Amino acid sequence: MDSITPAPRFRIGIDVGGTFTDLFLLDQVSGAVVRHKLPSTPGNPHLAPLEGVRELLRRAGGGGAEVAFVGLGTTVATNALLERKGAVTGLITTEGFRDLLELARQKRPHTFDLNVSKREPLAPRQLREEVPERIAADGSVLKPLDREALRAAIDRLVAAKVESIAICFLHAYTNSAHEETAAALVRERWPDGHVAVSSEVLPEFREYERLSSTVINAYLMPATRDYFHQFERNIAALGITEAPFVMNSGGGVITPAVAAKRPLDTLFSGPSGGVSGAVYVAERAGHPNIITFDMGGTSTDVCLVRDGRAEISYSRVINGYPLKAAALDVHTVGAGGSSLAQVDEGGMLRVGPASAGSQPGPACYGRGGERPTVTDANVVLGRLNPEYLLAGALKIDAAKSRAAIEQHVAEPKGLSVTDAAAAILTIADTNMAQALRFVSVERGLDPKDFMLMAFGGAGPLHAAFVAKQLGVAGVLVPFAPGVLCAMGVLTKDMQMDFSRTRVVAGSDAGAPAAVAAVFGELEARAREAFAEAAKAQPGALTIVRTVDARYNGQNHELNVAVPAGAFDAAALAAVKENFHRAHEQLYGYRSPERALELVTCRVTATLPIPRHDLVRVTQPPREGKPQPVARRQVFFEETGFVDCPIYARDDLRSGDALVGPAIVEQMDTTTIVPPGFTARVDAMLNLLMTG
After folding, report:
1. What's the pLDDT at 616?
2. Banded pLDDT at 562 (limits 50, 70, 90)
3. Which residues contact 203 (CB under 8 A, 6 or more apart)?
4. For residues 195, 199, 200 and 206, what is the CA-based torsion angle, rounded to 10 degrees?
5. Is 577 helix (H, G, I), strand (E, B) or coil?
6. From CA 433, how far away is CA 468, in angstroms rounded?
7. What is the pLDDT of residue 415?
């Protein structure tokens, strides 16, 4: 008798952070969910997801053949860039532009710091080659490509044992012929190498940013390719037949093959999943305007969401390296549960950005860490369980937390251990509140118009204190905040972004036809890419168009929506009005009499992926009010140490209300309800804190 293959029913989201790896499984038949959290394995980043998926399937009582979808959010590219653990990278560029990578824009980010050291370029000077060629800004060829010089340059780089080569010629975004010839020759003479070509990576103007982005992509390609290929093999080894996906920076998912070619698009993969999950939960709870507050072990990510849409950024700087790629506009600060507290040479107490990570981790983990962290301060003050975390999976040694703070903070500052721990948390909360002000107040927005969405392993632990500084409308803590980034991977469709610069004067009679031609090219590229990567049928794609525009004479652009349909005179008029409105909102005025330029056309192509309700949480009925499962002494600035009730999150039901001080514990996080705050449970079992 033939065996029957089980029907796919599980959907799995994974988020690999610097400290913990989070996993979320949905049984799309029963609606049941399984959540899991385990320490990351930075030395072998593929091991934690593999072990986590095994555990999810064990708990769900199923096998790999029953998995319909696996999505991964990862920091592997980000960590490789931050820690400079990428490939030995060579560069081939236009004659005379070898040093542009170092000359940059001649900006001094630390004007008054006499001791600041210059960041080393990712492609060192001895591995940067020039070849004679020149294309003008209008795309015409001023000097043909010297193929003999190109061959010699390639041979020198290969002899120098580079692992990756970036190709970036002047004005290649208008005419990529020379770059295409160079790339073909590199692949012919070096068939096993990695090649990043600027006209493929970023066909946009601004030479330095295009060069920097292409070099970053080349620098990350070998490590990310190996990682994503290993991830695919691991998934297949578990008996999962469906090909996995990877979260990209712009809020969609892509195939591992695409991610390996464009690691630039995965640099904000992890934070992107968190924002996506937060938007999903907040919309269903009736809160379209939120500020996300994702505090993990290593860093805190914040993002502003208006009317259910997260802000998008096309230009970022990571660790001093500028790059251009579509990404959710997430602002990151080095403040997390594992952020180290130390007294500097001037006697000032500082918290972060240095982190203890997961290995050795905070002192209380007992893994060899001896320096105090934010987590240790929370343990000392009773805000975290002094015996265990992760529902008992992670044992805690509170004495080690106390000893670390006493030695490294309390004694040097002449403080009690309690006051030292409180000072650590005050500084951490202030750092995070400043990040929230950056995405709200500094952009002319009032925080009281937004709900603070707290998630991540440490977000609910600090959210109320940060909210108090900021003055937001309230704090929303989802049912599974510690694994929301993993859940967020399951909320997104397959998505890719395409762009091309072509400066068009909005007053020109031929402007509509010129812009329509660029959008036609981008849409054709999108359909070709999806047909190759996902075997998508042409009619299955959803295409959204935007354009970067500016007043004539301005140096920076605003991205505005383009109406669907043919790009004609009416569409151009709509774009102009969208720009005037956006300019007025951001800068306080509009100048409709000024000439407008359309600069860079952008297309976001989306392929829908079947999804299911991820917030359908059902709990059995309970009689009476929720009862504490324990009590312990907890320190608050207003009260000192006070006897505080501890509630289990799984015991709470819709309509319950907790008056602070109170603590709510669950497997993936701990929520603090300080004095003066009240937490109410809504219909989807979110906690809504107001104070």
Report:
1. 67
2. very high
3. 172, 173, 176, 499, 500, 501
4. 100
5. helix
6. 9
7. 93
The pair of structure tokens assigned to 230 is: 């290993």
Is residue 296 predicted with pLDDT exceeding 90? no
| pTM recorded for the entire structure | 0.86
Segments in 144-176 forming alpha helices (H): 147-159
pLDDT at 291 over 90: yes
Closest CA to 328 of 303, 353, 308, 358: 303
pLDDT at 494 over 50: yes
Tell me the C-alpha distance between 671 and 481, whole Å.
Answer: 10
Long-range contact list for 54-60, CB < 8 A, 24+ apart?
A: 54/238, 55/23, 56/10, 56/12, 56/23, 56/25, 57/10, 57/25, 57/238, 59/25, 59/34, 60/10, 60/25, 60/27, 60/32, 60/34
For 655, other C-beta atoms within 10 Å of its C-beta total 9
- Asked, as a colleague might, if the bond just before 608 is cis with ω within 30 of 0, I would say no
Q: Which two tokens stand for residue 208?
A: 């330095």
Q: CB burial class (10 A; 0-12, 13-18, 19+) of residue 341? A: buried
Q: Which two tokens stand for residue 96?
A: 């005379």
- Give CA–CA dist 50/53, Å, rounded: 5
With cut-offs at 50, 70 and 90, classify the pLDDT of residue 538: low
Q: In whole angstroms, how far apart are CA 58 and each of 34, 64, 193?
A: 10, 10, 40
CA distances from 308 to 279, 280, 290 (A): 6, 8, 8
Query: CA–CA distance from 536 to each of 165, 377, 490 (Å)?
Result: 31, 51, 19
DSSP secondary structure of 337-364: TTEEEEE-TTS-EEEEEEE-TTTT-SGG
Spatial CB neighbours of 673, under 8 Å, sequence gap ≥ 6: 464, 658, 659, 660, 661, 662, 663, 664, 679, 689
pLDDT at 92: 98
Which tens digits make up the pLDDT trace of 315-346? 888 878 889 988 888 888 878 888 889 888 88
Average pLDDT, integer, range 217-227: 94
Relative to beta strand 67-74, strand 245-247 is: parallel
Q: Which two tokens stand for residue 614?
A: 């991820």
H/E element holding 94? strand 89-94
Tokens linked to 170: 């002047």
Per-residue pLDDT at 539: 66
In 3D space, the residue among 54, 51, 56 whose CA is nearest the CA of residue 40 turns out to be 51
Q: Locate 152 and state its tokens.
A: 């010699």
Kindly state the greatest CA–CA separation across the chain. 84
Neighbouring residues of 624: CB distance < 8 A, sequence distance ≥ 6: none
Say if residues 253 and 492 touch (Cβ distance below 8 Å).
Answer: yes
508 CB burial (10 A radius; 0-12, 13-18, 19+): middle
Q: Of 643, 648, 654, whose CA–CA distance to 666 is shortest? A: 648
**Other CB atoms within 10 A of residue 100 CB:** 20
Query: Does position 586 have pLDDT exceeding 80, yes or no?
Result: yes
Lowest mean pLDDT among 165-174, 362-371, 524-533, 605-614: 605-614
Any idea how long the chain is? Answer: 691
**Residue 19: helix, strand or coil by DSSP?**
coil
Q: What is the pLDDT, as a whole number, of residue 370? A: 87
DSSP, res 508: S
Query: Tokens 């100048």 map to which residue?
Result: 591
Residue appearing with tokens 């029907």: 7
Using a pLDDT cut of 70, give the percent of the chain over it. 97
> In terms of Cα–Cα distance, which of 132, 183, 180, 127 is closest to 157?
127
The torsion defined by the Cα of 185, 191, 194 and 196, in degrees rounded to 10, comes to: 20
666: tokens are 């669950």
For 99, phi then psi, to 5°, come to: -95, 5
pLDDT band at 1 (very low <50, low <70, confident <90, very high): very low
